[in-house]
Protein backbone atom coordinates (compact mmCIF):
# COMPACT_ATOMS: atom_id res chain seq x y z
CA UNK A 1 0.00 0.00 0.00
CA UNK A 2 1.45 3.35 -0.97
CA UNK A 3 1.13 6.59 0.93
CA UNK A 4 -1.80 7.85 -1.08
CA UNK A 5 -3.82 4.81 -0.13
CA UNK A 6 -3.47 5.26 3.59
CA UNK A 7 -6.43 7.51 3.91
CA UNK A 8 -8.76 4.87 2.53
CA UNK A 9 -7.83 2.49 5.32
CA UNK A 10 -8.20 4.97 8.16
CA UNK A 11 -11.54 5.37 9.85
CA UNK A 12 -12.95 8.82 9.22
CA UNK A 13 -15.87 8.91 11.66
CA UNK A 14 -16.03 11.99 13.86
CA UNK A 15 -13.38 11.95 16.54
CA UNK A 16 -14.66 11.94 20.14
CA UNK A 17 -13.64 15.04 22.01
CA UNK A 18 -11.16 14.55 24.82
CA UNK A 19 -12.87 14.97 28.16
CA UNK A 20 -11.58 15.55 31.70
CA UNK A 21 -12.58 11.96 32.42
CA UNK A 22 -9.75 10.62 30.27
CA UNK A 23 -6.91 9.44 32.47
CA UNK A 24 -3.88 11.75 32.39
CA UNK A 25 -0.96 10.70 30.26
CA UNK A 26 1.86 8.83 31.92
CA UNK A 27 4.73 11.14 32.77
CA UNK A 28 7.55 11.19 30.25
CA UNK A 29 9.96 10.12 32.98
CA UNK A 30 7.77 7.25 34.23
CA UNK A 31 9.66 3.95 34.37
CA UNK A 32 9.41 1.66 31.36
CA UNK A 33 7.41 -1.52 31.85
CA UNK A 34 8.22 -2.93 28.41
CA UNK A 35 11.44 -1.91 26.63
CA UNK A 36 11.84 -3.11 23.05
CA UNK A 37 15.05 -2.58 21.10
CA UNK A 38 15.86 -3.44 17.46
CA UNK A 39 13.14 -6.09 17.31
CA UNK A 40 12.84 -8.21 14.16
CA UNK A 41 10.44 -10.97 13.26
CA UNK A 42 11.21 -12.67 9.97
CA UNK A 43 9.30 -15.64 8.61
CA UNK A 44 10.94 -18.03 6.18
CA UNK A 45 14.04 -20.22 5.72
CA UNK A 46 17.14 -19.13 7.64
CA UNK A 47 15.28 -16.08 8.91
CA UNK A 48 17.99 -15.21 11.42
CA UNK A 49 20.40 -14.30 8.60
CA UNK A 50 18.27 -11.27 7.59
CA UNK A 51 18.72 -8.81 10.51
CA UNK A 52 22.08 -7.05 10.34
CA UNK A 53 22.88 -8.26 6.82
CA UNK A 54 22.56 -6.73 3.36
CA UNK A 55 19.22 -8.51 3.10
CA UNK A 56 17.79 -6.17 5.74
CA UNK A 57 17.89 -3.26 3.31
CA UNK A 58 15.79 -5.04 0.68
CA UNK A 59 12.16 -4.21 0.09
CA UNK A 60 9.55 -6.79 1.08
CA UNK A 61 9.17 -7.96 -2.51
CA UNK A 62 12.94 -8.18 -3.10
CA UNK A 63 13.43 -10.13 0.13
CA UNK A 64 10.78 -12.67 -0.85
CA UNK A 65 12.37 -13.11 -4.27
CA UNK A 66 15.98 -13.40 -3.07
CA UNK A 67 15.62 -15.20 0.27
CA UNK A 68 12.09 -16.53 0.42
CA UNK A 69 11.52 -14.56 3.63
CA UNK A 70 8.84 -12.17 4.85
CA UNK A 71 9.56 -9.47 7.43
CA UNK A 72 6.63 -8.86 9.79
CA UNK A 73 8.49 -6.63 12.28
CA UNK A 74 11.50 -4.65 11.06
CA UNK A 75 14.00 -3.12 13.53
CA UNK A 76 11.40 -1.74 15.97
CA UNK A 77 12.32 0.05 19.21
CA UNK A 78 10.06 1.67 21.81
CA UNK A 79 9.28 1.85 25.53
CA UNK A 80 5.89 1.39 27.17
CA UNK A 81 5.79 3.59 30.25
CA UNK A 82 4.15 2.65 33.50
CA UNK A 83 0.51 3.74 33.61
CA UNK A 84 0.11 4.68 29.94
CA UNK A 85 -2.10 3.39 27.15
CA UNK A 86 0.34 2.69 24.32
CA UNK A 87 -1.46 2.12 21.03
CA UNK A 88 0.11 0.32 18.07
CA UNK A 89 -1.87 0.96 14.91
CA UNK A 90 -1.59 0.36 11.20
CA UNK A 91 -3.35 -1.14 8.25
CA UNK A 92 -3.74 -4.88 7.73
CA UNK A 93 -0.34 -6.50 7.23
CA UNK A 94 1.60 -3.72 8.93
CA UNK A 95 2.96 -6.09 11.61
CA UNK A 96 1.11 -4.76 14.64
CA UNK A 97 -0.43 -8.05 15.82
CA UNK A 98 2.85 -9.90 15.32
CA UNK A 99 4.55 -7.21 17.39
CA UNK A 100 2.24 -7.55 20.40
CA UNK A 101 2.57 -11.34 20.33
CA UNK A 102 6.34 -11.00 20.40
CA UNK A 103 6.14 -9.09 23.70
CA UNK A 104 5.28 -12.29 25.59
CA UNK A 105 6.87 -14.63 23.03
CA UNK A 106 3.61 -16.09 21.81
CA UNK A 107 5.56 -15.54 18.60
CA UNK A 108 9.32 -15.94 18.94
CA UNK A 109 11.28 -12.87 17.81
CA UNK A 110 14.02 -13.39 15.26
CA UNK A 111 16.39 -10.90 16.89
CA UNK A 112 16.43 -7.90 19.17
CA UNK A 113 15.69 -7.49 22.88
CA UNK A 114 12.50 -7.30 24.94
CA UNK A 115 12.52 -6.51 28.65
CA UNK A 116 9.71 -6.26 31.20
CA UNK A 117 10.68 -4.27 34.30
CA UNK A 118 14.29 -4.72 33.20
CA UNK A 119 14.02 -8.53 32.98
CA UNK A 120 15.05 -10.14 29.70
CA UNK A 121 11.96 -11.73 28.14
CA UNK A 122 13.94 -13.41 25.36
CA UNK A 123 16.07 -15.20 27.97
CA UNK A 124 13.14 -16.57 29.98
CA UNK A 125 12.70 -20.31 30.31
CA UNK A 126 9.32 -22.01 29.98
CA UNK A 127 8.45 -21.54 33.65
CA UNK A 128 9.25 -17.83 33.62
CA UNK A 129 7.31 -17.36 30.39
CA UNK A 130 4.31 -19.14 31.88
CA UNK A 131 4.46 -16.82 34.89
CA UNK A 132 4.76 -13.79 32.58
CA UNK A 133 1.64 -14.74 30.62
CA UNK A 134 -0.42 -15.75 33.65
CA UNK A 135 0.44 -12.99 36.10
CA UNK A 136 2.27 -10.08 34.52
CA UNK A 137 0.91 -9.48 31.02
CA UNK A 138 -2.60 -10.68 30.17
CA UNK A 139 -3.87 -10.73 26.58
CA UNK A 140 -7.38 -9.78 25.42
CA UNK A 141 -7.98 -11.14 21.92
CA UNK A 142 -10.46 -10.23 19.18
CA UNK A 143 -12.00 -13.69 19.49
CA UNK A 144 -13.21 -14.12 23.03
CA UNK A 145 -12.35 -17.81 23.46
CA UNK A 146 -15.06 -18.30 26.08
CA UNK A 147 -15.98 -21.81 27.19
CA UNK A 148 -19.59 -22.30 26.03
CA UNK A 149 -20.54 -24.79 28.74
CA UNK A 150 -19.37 -22.54 31.59
CA UNK A 151 -21.17 -19.64 33.20
CA UNK A 152 -19.93 -16.07 33.00
CA UNK A 153 -18.55 -16.37 36.52
CA UNK A 154 -16.70 -19.60 35.78
CA UNK A 155 -15.32 -18.23 32.52
CA UNK A 156 -13.91 -15.23 34.36
CA UNK A 157 -12.47 -17.50 37.05
CA UNK A 158 -10.93 -19.93 34.57
CA UNK A 159 -7.47 -18.37 34.52
CA UNK A 160 -7.34 -18.37 38.31
CA UNK A 161 -8.40 -22.02 38.27
CA UNK A 162 -5.46 -22.83 36.00
CA UNK A 163 -3.21 -21.02 38.47
CA UNK A 164 -4.46 -23.29 41.26
CA UNK A 165 -6.35 -20.63 43.21
CA UNK A 166 -8.88 -22.10 45.67
CA UNK A 167 -12.48 -22.23 44.42
CA UNK A 168 -13.98 -19.82 46.94
CA UNK A 169 -11.22 -17.27 46.40
CA UNK A 170 -11.32 -17.41 42.61
CA UNK A 171 -15.11 -17.13 42.49
CA UNK A 172 -15.03 -14.13 44.82
CA UNK A 173 -12.40 -12.48 42.64
CA UNK A 174 -14.34 -13.33 39.49
CA UNK A 175 -17.52 -11.81 40.95
CA UNK A 176 -15.61 -8.61 41.68
CA UNK A 177 -14.35 -8.42 38.09
CA UNK A 178 -17.81 -9.18 36.64
CA UNK A 179 -19.18 -6.19 38.53
CA UNK A 180 -16.22 -4.04 37.48
CA UNK A 181 -16.97 -4.55 33.77
CA UNK A 182 -20.69 -3.93 34.17
CA UNK A 183 -22.06 -7.47 34.04
CA UNK A 184 -23.47 -7.74 37.57
CA UNK A 185 -26.55 -9.96 37.56
CA UNK A 186 -25.33 -12.03 34.60
CA UNK A 187 -22.97 -14.30 36.53
CA UNK A 188 -24.96 -17.47 35.80
CA UNK A 189 -25.56 -16.92 32.10
CA UNK A 190 -23.78 -18.91 29.41
CA UNK A 191 -21.81 -17.16 26.64
CA UNK A 192 -24.51 -18.06 24.11
CA UNK A 193 -26.97 -15.94 26.09
CA UNK A 194 -24.80 -12.80 25.79
CA UNK A 195 -24.40 -10.16 23.10
CA UNK A 196 -21.03 -9.68 21.40
CA UNK A 197 -20.22 -6.70 23.60
CA UNK A 198 -21.13 -8.63 26.74
CA UNK A 199 -18.95 -11.53 25.66
CA UNK A 200 -16.04 -9.14 25.14
CA UNK A 201 -16.61 -7.78 28.65
CA UNK A 202 -16.31 -11.34 29.95
CA UNK A 203 -12.99 -11.68 28.14
CA UNK A 204 -11.83 -8.39 29.66
CA UNK A 205 -12.95 -9.47 33.15
CA UNK A 206 -11.05 -12.76 32.75
CA UNK A 207 -7.87 -10.84 31.93
CA UNK A 208 -8.38 -8.43 34.85
CA UNK A 209 -8.96 -11.30 37.29
CA UNK A 210 -5.29 -12.24 37.06
CA UNK A 211 -4.42 -8.67 38.20
CA UNK A 212 -1.71 -8.31 35.54
CA UNK A 213 0.77 -5.47 35.46
CA UNK A 214 0.04 -4.94 31.75
CA UNK A 215 -3.07 -5.59 29.66
CA UNK A 216 -2.37 -6.43 26.02
CA UNK A 217 -5.29 -5.90 23.62
CA UNK A 218 -5.07 -7.37 20.12
CA UNK A 219 -7.82 -5.65 18.10
CA UNK A 220 -10.38 -6.73 20.70
CA UNK A 221 -13.31 -4.67 19.41
CA UNK A 222 -12.92 -4.89 15.64
CA UNK A 223 -15.72 -7.46 15.25
CA UNK A 224 -18.24 -5.46 17.28
CA UNK A 225 -20.98 -3.18 16.01
CA UNK A 226 -20.08 0.54 16.13
CA UNK A 227 -22.25 1.43 19.14
CA UNK A 228 -21.08 -1.59 21.13
CA UNK A 229 -17.50 -0.83 20.11
CA UNK A 230 -17.81 2.69 21.46
CA UNK A 231 -19.20 1.34 24.73
CA UNK A 232 -16.19 -0.96 25.05
CA UNK A 233 -13.80 1.89 24.29
CA UNK A 234 -15.44 3.88 27.07
CA UNK A 235 -15.00 0.88 29.35
CA UNK A 236 -11.26 0.82 28.63
CA UNK A 237 -11.04 4.57 29.28
CA UNK A 238 -12.91 4.11 32.57
CA UNK A 239 -10.70 1.23 33.70
CA UNK A 240 -7.59 3.19 32.87
CA UNK A 241 -8.89 6.25 34.68
CA UNK A 242 -9.87 4.24 37.77
CA UNK A 243 -6.85 1.94 37.95
CA UNK A 244 -4.05 3.59 35.98
CA UNK A 245 -3.14 0.18 34.59
CA UNK A 246 -0.55 -0.02 31.83
CA UNK A 247 -2.09 -1.08 28.51
CA UNK A 248 -0.80 -1.93 25.04
CA UNK A 249 -3.64 -1.67 22.54
CA UNK A 250 -3.49 -2.92 18.93
CA UNK A 251 -5.92 -1.46 16.40
CA UNK A 252 -6.32 -0.58 12.72
CA UNK A 253 -8.89 2.11 13.58
CA UNK A 254 -7.50 5.64 13.72
CA UNK A 255 -10.41 7.05 15.71
CA UNK A 256 -9.98 4.28 18.28
CA UNK A 257 -6.26 4.96 18.54
CA UNK A 258 -6.78 8.69 19.04
CA UNK A 259 -9.52 8.11 21.59
CA UNK A 260 -7.60 5.65 23.73
CA UNK A 261 -3.90 6.31 23.29
CA UNK A 262 -1.58 8.37 25.45
CA UNK A 263 0.98 7.61 22.74
CA UNK A 264 0.58 5.99 19.34
CA UNK A 265 3.09 3.99 17.28
CA UNK A 266 1.99 4.02 13.64
CA UNK A 267 3.32 1.03 11.68
CA UNK A 268 3.83 0.44 7.99
CA UNK A 269 5.44 -2.64 6.40
CA UNK A 270 6.80 -3.79 9.77
CA UNK A 271 8.38 -0.45 10.71
CA UNK A 272 7.25 2.22 13.16
CA UNK A 273 7.03 5.32 10.96
CA UNK A 274 6.06 7.65 13.83
CA UNK A 275 5.62 7.35 17.58
CA UNK A 276 4.10 10.16 19.60
CA UNK A 277 1.06 11.59 21.33
CA UNK A 278 -2.18 11.91 19.38
CA UNK A 279 -1.49 15.64 19.11
CA UNK A 280 1.98 15.00 17.66
CA UNK A 281 0.67 12.44 15.17
CA UNK A 282 -2.13 14.69 13.93
CA UNK A 283 -0.36 18.04 14.26
CA UNK A 284 3.15 17.12 13.13
CA UNK A 285 3.02 14.10 10.78
CA UNK A 286 6.47 12.57 10.22
CA UNK A 287 6.00 11.98 6.49
CA UNK A 288 3.49 11.95 3.67
CA UNK A 289 2.20 8.51 4.68
CA UNK A 290 1.26 9.70 8.18
CA UNK A 291 -0.06 12.98 6.79
CA UNK A 292 -2.36 11.09 4.44
CA UNK A 293 -3.39 8.75 7.23
CA UNK A 294 -4.64 11.58 9.47
CA UNK A 295 -5.91 13.96 6.80
CA UNK A 296 -9.60 13.43 7.66
CA UNK A 297 -9.19 13.82 11.40
CA UNK A 298 -11.00 16.89 12.82
CA UNK A 299 -7.87 18.67 14.07
CA UNK A 300 -9.75 20.82 16.57
CA UNK A 301 -10.85 17.75 18.51
CA UNK A 302 -7.32 16.41 18.95
CA UNK A 303 -4.99 19.40 19.02
CA UNK A 304 -4.76 21.57 22.13
CA UNK A 305 -4.45 25.29 22.73
CA UNK A 306 -0.67 24.87 23.01
CA UNK A 307 -0.58 24.94 19.20
CA UNK A 308 -2.89 27.95 18.93
CA UNK A 309 -1.69 30.31 21.65
CA UNK A 310 0.25 33.49 21.00
CA UNK A 311 2.11 35.77 23.44
CA UNK A 312 -0.19 37.90 25.58
CA UNK A 313 -0.40 41.58 24.70
CA UNK A 314 -0.40 44.28 27.36
CA UNK A 315 -3.19 43.62 29.85
CA UNK A 316 -4.28 40.29 28.29
CA UNK A 317 -2.49 38.14 30.85
CA UNK A 318 -4.82 39.40 33.59
CA UNK A 319 -8.18 39.38 31.78
CA UNK A 320 -10.50 36.88 30.17
CA UNK A 321 -11.41 33.24 30.72
CA UNK A 322 -8.60 30.89 31.68
CA UNK A 323 -7.95 27.57 29.94
CA UNK A 324 -5.65 24.70 30.84
CA UNK A 325 -2.90 23.89 28.29
CA UNK A 326 -4.61 20.54 27.66
CA UNK A 327 -7.86 22.18 26.53
CA UNK A 328 -8.73 21.14 22.99
CA UNK A 329 -9.05 23.74 20.27
CA UNK A 330 -12.74 22.79 19.90
CA UNK A 331 -13.37 23.54 23.58
CA UNK A 332 -11.45 26.82 23.32
CA UNK A 333 -13.47 27.88 20.27
CA UNK A 334 -16.64 27.43 22.30
CA UNK A 335 -15.21 29.55 25.13
CA UNK A 336 -14.04 32.36 22.85
CA UNK A 337 -17.32 32.33 20.90
CA UNK A 338 -19.33 32.50 24.13
CA UNK A 339 -17.34 35.34 25.71
CA UNK A 340 -16.43 37.24 22.57
CA UNK A 341 -12.91 37.87 23.88
CA UNK A 342 -9.54 36.15 23.90
CA UNK A 343 -8.90 33.49 26.53
CA UNK A 344 -5.79 33.02 28.63
CA UNK A 345 -3.84 29.76 28.70
CA UNK A 346 -2.81 29.27 32.32
CA UNK A 347 -0.26 26.71 33.50
CA UNK A 348 0.72 26.50 37.16
CA UNK A 349 -0.99 29.80 37.92
CA UNK A 350 0.98 31.62 35.21
CA UNK A 351 -0.38 32.93 31.90
CA UNK A 352 1.71 31.27 29.19
CA UNK A 353 -0.21 32.60 26.22
CA UNK A 354 -3.50 33.75 24.76
CA UNK A 355 -5.88 32.27 22.18
CA UNK A 356 -8.37 34.20 20.10
CA UNK A 357 -10.70 33.43 17.20
CA UNK A 358 -7.96 34.01 14.62
CA UNK A 359 -5.32 31.76 16.21
CA UNK A 360 -7.85 29.00 16.89
CA UNK A 361 -9.25 29.01 13.36
CA UNK A 362 -5.67 28.95 12.06
CA UNK A 363 -5.20 25.58 13.76
CA UNK A 364 -8.46 24.25 12.31
CA UNK A 365 -7.34 25.33 8.83
CA UNK A 366 -3.88 23.81 9.28
CA UNK A 367 -2.12 27.16 9.08
CA UNK A 368 -0.18 26.35 12.24
CA UNK A 369 1.50 23.47 10.36
CA UNK A 370 2.31 25.78 7.43
CA UNK A 371 3.96 28.27 9.74
CA UNK A 372 6.05 25.55 11.41
CA UNK A 373 7.14 24.15 8.03
CA UNK A 374 8.17 27.62 6.88
CA UNK A 375 10.14 28.17 10.06
Automatic annotation (TrEMBL):
Which residue stretches belong to region Disordered? Answer: 1-28
Report domain ABC transporter positions. Answer: 58-294
Q: Which Pfam families match?
A: ABC_tran
GO MF term (any one) = ATP binding
Q: What is this protein called?
A: Glycine/betaine ABC transporter ATP-binding protein
Q: Which domain of life is it from?
A: Bacteria
Q: Which UniProt keywords apply?
A: ATP-binding, Nucleotide-binding, Transport
Q: Which NCBIfam families match?
A: proV
InterPro entries from the UniProt entry: AAA+_ATPase (IPR003593), ABC_osmolyte_uptake_ATP-bind (IPR051921), ABC_transporter-like_ATP-bd (IPR003439), ABC_transporter-like_CS (IPR017871), Gly-betaine_transp_ATP-bd (IPR005892), P-loop_NTPase (IPR027417)
Q: Which family does it belong to?
A: Belongs to the ABC transporter superfamily.
